[in-house]
């Protein structure tokens, strides 16, 4: 999971102007993630990791933090892209 975590962390922080966040920080509550950025993340995950994000996967718990996103990728047995 560490490779997934590093990749997700790099993507998120690059879109936040390089701002460093704890892996467990709530991206929604902290105002770092809005609906448009969430869609961008989903599209990126599908391309980067070769996974299909389905409607049932679109829960706050899967996308609440950098760590949650990395865990979601790991749970889908995605290879590191």
Structure description:
- With 81 residues, the protein is mainly alpha-helical.
- The chain has one domain: ACP-like (Non-ribosomal Peptide Synthetase Peptidyl Carrier Protein, Chain A, Orthogonal Bundle), CATH 1.10.1200.10.
- It is built from four helices and no strands.
- Helix 1 (2-14) crosses helix 4.
- The longest helix has 15 residues, at 35-49.
- It is globular.
Could you give a quick summary of the protein structure above?
The protein has 81 residues and is an all-alpha fold. The chain has helices at residues 2-14, 35-49, 60-63, 66-75.
Topology:
Elements: H1 2-14, H2 35-49, H3 60-63, H4 66-75
Helix pairs in contact: 1-4
Protein name: Carrier domain-containing protein
Pfam family, one: PP-binding
Domain Carrier: 1-77
